[in-house]
C-alpha cells in the first residue's frame, strides 16, 4: 500500500535534486561571468555544460 507514496516521494526527491543542480550551475555561470568577465558561452564551456542543456541555461539567465 505504500508503493504509491514511495514513488511520489522518490519523484519529488529527484525533482529537488535536479532543481538544486540547475541553481548551482546558474550561480557558477554568473560567478564566472562577473569575476572573470567571461561570456555566458565561455562560462558554460569552462563548466563543461552539455550542449543539450545550454538553451535551458541561457533562458534561465535571461529570466534573472
The count of β-strands is 0
Structural domains: how many: 1
The major beta sheet can be summarized as: none
**Helix/strand class:** mainly alpha
Overall morphology: elongated
Give the helices and strands as they follow along the chain.
Answer: HHH
Structure characteristics:
single chain, 64 residues, mainly alpha
Folded structure, characterized:
With 64 residues, the protein is an all-alpha fold. It has one domain (11-63). It is 86% helix and 0% strand. It has helices at 3-36, 40-47, 51-63. It is elongated and about 50 Å long. The mean pLDDT is 94.
Short characterization:
By secondary structure, this protein is mainly alpha-helical. It is 86% helix and 0% strand.
List strands and helices in order, with pairings:
Blueprint: H1 3-36, H2 40-47, H3 51-63
Helix pairs in contact: 1-2
Amino acid at each position: 500500500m505504500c508503493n504509491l507514496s514511495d514513488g511520489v516521494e522518490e519523484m519529488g526527491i529527484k525533482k529537488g535534486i535536479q532543481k538544486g543542480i540547475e541553481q548551482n550551475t546558474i550561480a557558477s555561470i554568473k560567478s564566472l561571468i562577473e569575476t572573470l568577465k567571461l561570456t555566458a558561452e565561455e562560462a558554460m564551456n569552462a563548466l563543461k555544460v552539455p550542449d543539450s542543456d545550454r538553451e535551458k541555461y541561457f533562458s534561465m539567465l535571461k529570466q534573472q
